[in-house]
Amino acid sequence: MDPLLDFTGKVAVITGAAQGFGKLLAEELAMRGAKLVISDINGGVQQVADDIASKGTDVIALTCDVSKNGDCKAMVDKAIETFGRVDIGVNNAGVAHEFMPLHEIDESVMDSQFAINVKGVQFGMRHQIKQMLTQGEGIILNVSSMAGLGGAARGSAYAMAKHAVIGLTKTGAVEYARSNIRINAICPFFTLTPMVTDFADETMQGKMSKGAPMGRLGEPKEIVAMMLMMLSPANTYMTGQCIAIDGGVSAA
């Protein structure tokens, strides 16, 4: 196996793994030798784990509400109890909200975005970092968004939360760089995961795709390919970076 993408023996914890990026990343890491603890608030995560386990990978599925610190701690604790360490933490779980003007966003929408998209990432990082400090190394990847790098018309609460994820990523990278813990974020443009398809029909997707120079939305496999490179054990000098995977949006 190419050493750039060899995860043999690495222990990865992934939130939001019942579908979308989390599910595909879990499958890809499993094929490359990783051991997994995957979670989701959606009970479908057990089926994902069963499918992966049937191919010979050590994998555990947990129900996890990332807005609860105790659930995030339990996930890391389970990885330590079962596999003895946590090499990779992927804080992927997140939610969107309906498109609406900023002046119509009420407090309940902001509370939901902050609880899941911000606190959920910080809770994950908190417990992952504690274990990685004990080990003397680790890799964390947070899932932000292009909405975290710029404005997002009619998505202000989501943008607010995803900007916060970038702040957490950069701050954590600076704090723990000398502890050999690398922390980065990936920032996708609209991608054909359930987070997009549940909110936007084909007509809306067509309008959204016009915002990208490539003229289309992203495919999940395209985003996960970059996630794998960012998590590569050979990628040892990259930290604090928030990488846009956007079909050229940020270049326009």
Automatic annotation (TrEMBL):
<dbReference type="InterPro" id="IPR002347">
    <property type="entry name" value="SDR_fam"/>
</dbReference>
<dbReference type="InterPro" id="IPR020904">
    <property type="entry name" value="Sc_DH/Rdtase_CS"/>
</dbReference>
<dbReference type="InterPro" id="IPR036291">
    <property type="entry name" value="NAD(P)-bd_dom_sf"/>
</dbReference>
<dbReference type="Pfam" id="PF13561">
    <property type="entry name" value="adh_short_C2"/>
</dbReference>
<comment type="similarity">
    <text>Belongs to the short-chain dehydrogenases/reductases (SDR) family.</text>
</comment>
<protein>
    <submittedName>
        <fullName>SDR family oxidoreductase</fullName>
    </submittedName>
</protein>
